[in-house]
Amino acid sequence: MGRITLQKVVKSFGAFDILHGIDLEIEDGEFVVFVGPSGCGKSTLLRQIAGLDKPTSGQIHIDGELVNDVPAADRGLAMVFQSYALYPHMTVRQNLAFGLENARLPKHEIDTRIAEAARMLEIGDYLSRRPGQLSGGQRQRVAIGRAIVRNPTAFLLDEPLSNLDAELRISMRAELSALHARLKTTMIYVTHDQIEAMTLANRIVVLRKGKIEQVGTPLELYNTPANRFVAGFIGAPSMNFLSGTILSTGADGTRLTVLGETQLTTSRTALDAKAGQKISVGVRPQHIRLAKPEENGISAHIDMVEALGSETVIHAHAATGETILAVLAGQHDLAKGAEVQLSFESRDIHLFDEAGLRLAG
Ligand code: ATP
């Protein structure tokens, strides 16, 4: 089992409140990713769960047991760090065996577990090498192997892939996913990389300044972000936010203007909105296209074009000076300085009030 429950977890360092009362339930077998900008408290939260640090107040339960006063070594969890934290003077086999020998497991059991982990992670050929003789990717596999052999209740992973180059990170990501599918053990994974979060998680916890902004599946966060922060954080490149004003709301939808010129009606009923209210209209770059000749698009001037072959990224600005980023499928003959008409479907927009909260709908 690996059910982890946090209730009103607060962590302060001196006068600084770093975690402001975190409530979260992680089910057995879930792959949960904590994501958020640097300094938002992701690692601090993971450390409270691991037992490397003690909450200032609040409760942490693992499988129903209150663990606030249980030392890290007795929580049945295994941690994997960005730095690998391997013993440099030991061979890979000794690194894998170390914790098990300390726990006084019989030798045949240790050998079986090492063989099994080595097979899963394909590190069997390196067992007699020292960490210094391995590549970064191989070291990280050993670090993951050391966690696996402990047969933990849950894995806690703190940015485990961030020391690897981009290509290796992508392949290790796929391996971690496969490993989770195979082991079916709870995994809690910290990253500031939203793509990593989207590809790995069953559920994502978005943190900002020590508070949870939203918890949901990757697509829930992508399709219905609760606020502007989540909308801007999840999805790459980041969502555009354009100034808008509500004209009217009604059963047949919400009528609004974008950038003072384009009028549109969205069926997303902004029930809480009032006519005249200033709003922020969110549109993902992938949802913006070149307007058809008969359409009343948004006029924009191109500042930069990135021709990537399969898609064309346009950096532009509207008459208001607001910037617009568009990712157009395919190749387009567009140049810096050109004026274009941009458009999008009303069903693809997200509305946020001036406080940044999603307007209902
Ligand atoms: P990153 O992605 O950069 O690793 P993070 O979201 O994991 O960031 P934390 O490492 O949890 O952030 O840190 C959150 C805040 O708590 C930071 O402002 C940090 O300076 C502060 N902090 C962390 N540990 C301590 C400590 N032992 N004493 C004082 N402040 C701390």
Automatic annotation (TrEMBL):
Topology class, membrane: Peripheral membrane protein
Keyword Ribosomal protein belongs to the record: no
Domain (ABC transporter): residue spans on this chain: 4-234
Domain of life from the UniProt record: Bacteria
PROSITE patterns hit by this protein: ABC_TRANSPORTER_1 (PS00211), ABC_TRANSPORTER_2 (PS50893)
Alphabetized SMART domains for the sequence: AAA
Predominant cellular place of this UniProt entry's protein: membrane
GO molecular function: ABC-type maltose transporter activity; ATP binding; ATP hydrolysis activity
Keyword entries, A-Z: ATP-binding, Cell inner membrane, Cell membrane, Membrane, Nucleotide-binding, Transport
Example of a GO cellular component annotation carried by this entry: ATP-binding cassette (ABC) transporter complex, substrate-binding subunit-containing
InterPro entries the UniProt entry points to: AAA+_ATPase, ABC_transporter-like_ATP-bd, ABC_transporter-like_CS, ABC_transpr_MalK-like, ABC_transpr_MalK/UgpC-like, Mo/tungstate-bd_C_term_dom, NA-bd_OB-fold, P-loop_NTPase
Name by which UniProt lists this protein: ABC transporter ATP-binding protein
Pfam families: ABC_tran (PF00005), TOBE_2 (PF08402)
Subcellular location: Cell inner membrane
Family the UniProt entry places it in: Belongs to the ABC transporter superfamily.
